[in-house]
Amino acid sequence: MSNIKTVLIVDDSRVSRMLIRSLILAKHPDWVMEEAVSGEEALEKVRTVVPQLITLDINMPGMGGIAAAEMLVKECPGVRVVLLSGNIQESSHRKAEQLGVGFVEKPITESCVANVLAYLDK
Q1: Residue 7, SS3?
Q2: What would the 3-class secondary structure string for 77-121 be?
Q3: Which residues span the domain enclosing 83?
Q4: pTM for the full model?
Q5: Residue 37: in which H helix or E strand, if any?
Q6: Residue 15: DSSP 8-state
Q7: Any idea what the CATH number is for the domain that residue 64 is in?
Q8: Does pLDDT of 52 surpass 90?
């Protein structure tokens, strides 16, 4: 089995996507990075790309991360989904737990991305 993974990074912030991409590729230069700027685009992407990991910003225009996570876990069983947010309200944590997805607090740092990648081993 190949150790090369495909990661779908979903965030309306270009800077956030670039940071996540560069921090993952620094540790796993052979991994494939895909990007989407919205929940809607993420749902379109998973029809043609099969990621092992999806990172989702919670607050995005249009379909936010929580709504997208609900649909993605149904459409992509077995794919690890992790919500990323600076919103540390208990309700966001509870919703992630109910959906069976990960939750990692921003800002995006090396530690934050390490916590995201840890979900691949769960």
Answers
A1: strand
A2: CCCEEEEEECCCCHHHHHHHHHHCCEEEECCCCHHHHHHHHHHHH
A3: 6-121
A4: 0.95
A5: none
A6: H
A7: 3.40.50.2300
A8: yes
